[in-house]
Amino acid sequence: MSADHTRDPCPVVILSDFGGAFAMGVIGGCVWHGIKGFRNSPMGERHLGAVSAIKARAPVVGGNFGVWGGLFSTFDCAVKAVRKREDPWNAIIAGLFTGGSLAVRGGWRHTRNSAIMCGCLLGVMEGVGLMFQRYAAWQAKPMAPPLPEPQQPQALGA
Amino acid sequence: MSWLFGGRKSQTSGAEESFPNDSKSQDSQNSLGFDPSQVTNVSSIISTPGALDTSRLHPLAGLERGVEYLDLEEEQLSTMEGSKSLIPSRGWTDDLCYGTGAVYLTGLGLGGSYGFFEGLKNIPPNSPGKLQLNTVLNHITRRGPFIGNNAGVLTLTYNLINSSIDALRGKHDSANSVVAGAVTGAIFKSSKGLKPMGYASGMMAVAAAGWCGLKSVLL
């Protein structure tokens, strides 16, 4: 009953996370680079500038988001399978691996720093999520039912 | 209280006169329309046998019954006509995420392997191992993300349009997919002029039709 049915089971959820992160990146990149291209173009070519900036940059932003989300989901599933438990450390460990593997071409120091940064970021996110969870649980805390009446209620007007 | 419960007062008083020794529950049942001793309240819930059974109240109780329908109220599968796809879908967000993710990964893999072989061919002669590795990796990362990104954007647009047409028509069929593919291709090349728009539109329509054919074979 307490299982989370909104997320699919592990191997296939990677695909969904990939697509979701990619879609988020593309749509966000359209807004971001649309505004940027509009502002950085000379008067009279602003709409053209916005469109060409979106065409050039939005898919790249989407790809970056998608690869990050997909890698994170893959590592998350792998860590879950190895540790056989679900807690915030899964996300932090997966964040470490994700940050490290995305920076692996930049050398050992870059990989290490990037992994630590990413792990800390995920740790903060998990912490905030836990805080919200606690707050929601505190708001919906169970209430004792009102005490029963000592005798049967009398019929009205009887 | 007849104004509230809609009882017929003259008949009730007549019943009282004709059965003066009736039980109290019968009397109140007539005037209230229900029997107060049958009403569920806290004491009746608590006094029900088995209500405080610890094996039923445990947080992990009832796991052997599997998933209950109440848990799945928010996650019903899509009931739209003809919307059955290769994997079960809960609606347009699932279609969008899975479709985009699958096509993006496929494009990334195909482009990456193309770049891999291209990189193997373009290794400079007599170069050290690190340079060879770098050449191959550079070719992979040039080809893979390019094809993956474009395929992903196409699928994203296609899925958005397809779901919109489905929602407007209230059902899904192959014509929806083909039209959505054509519109997607036209939008994708919309800044290049009419002729490229036509080509891209036709190609995407054919691709969508191919996907529908594949789905009908596999399902």
UniProtKB/TrEMBL annotation, chain A:
GO terms classed as biological process: protein import into mitochondrial matrix
Major site of localization recorded for this protein: mitochondrion
GO molecular function: protein transmembrane transporter activity
Compartment(s): Mitochondrion inner membrane
Domain of life: Eukaryota
Transmembrane segments: 12-35, 89-108, 114-132
GO cellular component: TIM23 mitochondrial import inner membrane translocase complex
Membrane topology classification: Multi-pass membrane protein
Signal peptide: none
Keywords, comma-separated and alphabetical: Membrane, Mitochondrion, Mitochondrion inner membrane, Protein transport, Translocation, Transmembrane, Transmembrane helix, Transport
Pfam families associated with the record: Tim17
Family: Belongs to the Tim17/Tim22/Tim23 family.
Record's function text: Essential component of the TIM23 complex, a complex that mediates the translocation of transit peptide-containing proteins across the mitochondrial inner membrane.
Subunit composition and interactions: Component of the TIM23 complex, at least composed of TIM23, TIM17, TIM50 and TIM21.
Name the record gives this protein: Mitochondrial import inner membrane translocase subunit TIM17
TrEMBL record, chain B:
Any single biological process term in GO: protein import into mitochondrial matrix
Biased composition (Polar residues): 9-34
InterPro entries named among the record's database cross-references: Tim23, Tim23-like
GO molecular function, one term: protein transmembrane transporter activity
UniProt keyword annotation of Transport present: yes
UniProt subcellular location: Mitochondrion inner membrane
Presence of keyword Nucleotide-binding: no
Chain segments carrying region Disordered: 1-34
Keywords on record: Membrane, Mitochondrion, Mitochondrion inner membrane, Protein transport, Translocation, Transmembrane, Transmembrane helix, Transport
Record's subunit section: Component of the TIM23 complex, at least composed of TIM23, TIM17, TIM50 and TIM21.
NCBIfam families recorded: 3a0801s02tim23 (TIGR00983)
Protein family membership: Belongs to the Tim17/Tim22/Tim23 family.
PANTHER family: SD19278P, TIM23
Protein name, UniProt field: Mitochondrial import inner membrane translocase subunit TIM23
Organism: Lachancea lanzarotensis
